[in-house]
Amino acid sequence: MNKTILASAALFAALVSVPHAHAQKGGTPDPKAVQAGSYSIEPYHTQVEFTLLHMGFTNFSGFFSQASGTLTLDPAHIDATKLDVTLPIASVQTTVGKLDGELKSADWFDAEKFPTAHFVSTRVTRAGSSMATITGDLTLHGVTKPVTFKARLIGSGVNPLDKKETVGFEGSAVISRSAFGVSRYVPLVGDQVTLHIAGAFEKAS
After folding, report:
1. Single pTM value for the model
2. What does UniProt give as the signal peptide span (predicted)?
3. CA 164 to CA 38: how far, in whole Å?
4. Distance CA 108, CA 168 (A)
5. pLDDT interval class at 25 (50, 70, 90)
6. Which tens digits make up the pLDDT trace of 104-139?
């Protein structure tokens, strides 16, 4: 019996000494850990959620994904930050397949005629140790309007899977869809649209 106990203890000790048995370390929310440099969007974990009031009954949401773009970031000179993001309109997705098709049609986003949405920052200002205000030009449905996002650092560090230096933010803004020419069913279906962004960026090697 003692030999069995000793063997089990030895096996346990061997397992916990293997690096992969330990919890992998991800990002840290410490703003001092953010590295300056040029970053590219990591598309698999970047998404834009949109929410609007549906006929006065529910706040209904959908998503855009497959983003591409770049971020030039220097925490010591936050006003020099540059952000350039493109989203394919055909990536729109809700929980209703029929609605996804309608949103891509000419009655709504008209993905065939206007295949992308594009945001380019024009001014970035610090709003706290982990916060920033990002103002820029959003082009959607062929219309360009200024939009301001409130952004917050989520974390930065080396991604334990692909070993790339990564930084992640969340952002939010409210826009008027009719201002961009997407006005079907306004005001029955809400004109104000809340955008919530989860943005992941990988540093260029």
Report:
1. 0.86
2. 1-23
3. 13
4. 31
5. confident
6. 999 999 999 999 999 999 999 999 889 999 999 999
Give the C-alpha separation, 146 to 198, whole Å: 20
Q: What is the pLDDT of residue 7?
A: 44
Please give, one letter per residue, the 3-state secondary structure of the chain. CHHHHHHHHHHHHHHHCCHHHCCCCCCECCHHHCCCEEEEECHHHCEEEEEEEECCCEEEEEEECCCEEEEEECHHHHHHCEEEEEEEHHHCECCCHHHHHHHHCCCCCCCCCCCEEEEEEEEEEECCCCEEEEEEEEEECCEEEEEEEEEEEEEEEECCCCCCEEEEEEEEEEEEHHHHCCCCCCCCECCEEEEEEEEEEEECC
Q: Which of 119, 122, 34 is nearest to 81 (CA)?
A: 122
Q: pLDDT of 150-187, one tens digit each?
A: 999 999 999 999 999 999 999 999 999 999 999 999 99
CB 93 within 8 A of CB 50: no
Delineate the domains of the chain, giving CATH numbers in brackets. 27-203 (2.40.128.110)
> 180, exposed or middle or buried, with CB in 10 Å at 0-12, 13-18, 19+?
buried
Percent of the chain with pLDDT over 70: 88
Q: What is the pLDDT of residue 23?
A: 55
